[in-house]
Specification:
- There is one protein chain.
- The chain has 6 helices and 8 strands, in the order E-E-H-H-H-H-E-E-E-H-E-H-E-E.
- It is α+β, with helices and mostly antiparallel strands.
- Helices cover about 25% and strands about 30% of the residues.
- The termini are far apart.
- The longest helix is centred in the middle third of the chain and has 16 residues, at about 125-140.
- It has a domain at about 10-145: Aminopeptidase.
- An 8-stranded mixed beta sheet has the order 1-2-3-4-5-6-8-7, with helices on both faces.
- The radius of gyration is 17 Å and the shape is globular.
C-alpha cells in the first residue's frame, strides 16, 4: 500500500468570513480578485517592498490563482472597492522532536500590501488589528510574527501601532532585488500580550 501524505485542514475555514470592521471588510481571496490586486501591486512604490515581482498581469493571474496562494490571501475592501490585501500563513510552532506535546499549528506569519491611493487613512492599521483578532480570538493561535525590510518604516511602524514588539534586526539578512543585501526586522505578538489601540 503506497504511503499518503497527511492532509492538513484549512485553518482559515474555521473563521466566519467576511470579517467586518467599522470601515472595512476582510474576506478570502478569489481568483477573480487578481486584476484589482495587480493594479496596485504592480506600482513601483508597492512592488519594491514585495517578495516577488510580476512583469505582466497574466503572470500575476497565474500566481494569484494557485490554491496555496489563495489559501493564505485575504482581500480588504472599503465599500466594495479593493484597498489592499493581507497574508496569513498558519504554521506549527518550533519544538524539539522528543517533546510529548508537539506544537500544533499555533502561530502565524502575517503581511500586507495596500494601494497607495488608499494609504494615510488608517485602513492598514484597522485591517491588521482585525487580522490579529482573527489570529488570536477566532483561530486560537499563540503567536503572530511579521517581517519587513528595516528601511520600510511605514510597515514596522504599523507593527508597533498594533502592539507588536521588535524581536530582532537581521544585519544584511534580506536580499533585495535592487538594493542587494539589506537589514530586515522581525516583530511578534503573543496572544496574552496587550494589543495596540482600539
Amino acid at each position: 500500500m503506497p504511503e499518503t501524505a497527511a492532509v492538513r485542514d484549512d485553518p482559515l475555514a474555521r473563521v466566519a468570513w467576511p470579517v467586518a470592521t467599522p470601515r472595512l471588510t476582510l474576506r478570502r481571496a478569489r481568483p477573480e480578485d487578481a486584476d484589482a490586486l495587480f493594479d496596485y501591486r504592480s506600482l513601483p512604490a508597492v512592488d519594491r517592498r514585495l517578495s516577488q515581482r510580476f512583469t505582466s498581469a497574466e503572470e500575476w493571474r497565474a500566481h494569484h490563482g494557485d490554491p496555496d496562494r489563495l489559501a493564505t490571501t485575504l482581500v480588504v475592501e472599503r465599500d466594495g472597492d479593493v484597498v489592499g490585501d493581507l497574508y496569513l500563513a498558519v504554521r506549527d510552532g518550533w519544538g524539539q522532536r522528543d517533546v510529548v506535546d508537539r506544537p500544533r499549528p499555533d502561530e502565524a506569519e502575517i503581511g500586507w500590501a495596500f494601494s497607495p491611493s488608499h494609504q494615510g487613512r488608517g485602513y492598514a492599521t484597522e485591517a491588521v488589528r482585525a487580522l490579529l483578532t482573527v489570529c488570536f480570538d477566532d483561530l486560537g493561535l499563540r503567536r503572530v510574527v511579521a517581517n519587513a525590510f528595516a528601511d520600510n518604516e511605514p510597515s514596522w511602524r504599523l507593527m508597533e501601532r498594533v502592539g507588536m514588539r521588535r524581536e530582532g534586526v537581521g544585519v544584511r539578512d534580506s536580499l533585495h532585488r535592487d538594493l542587494g543585501w539589506v537589514d530586515g526586522v522581525t516583530y511578534a505578538l503573543l496572544a496574552d500580550e496587550p494589543r495596540g489601540g482600539a
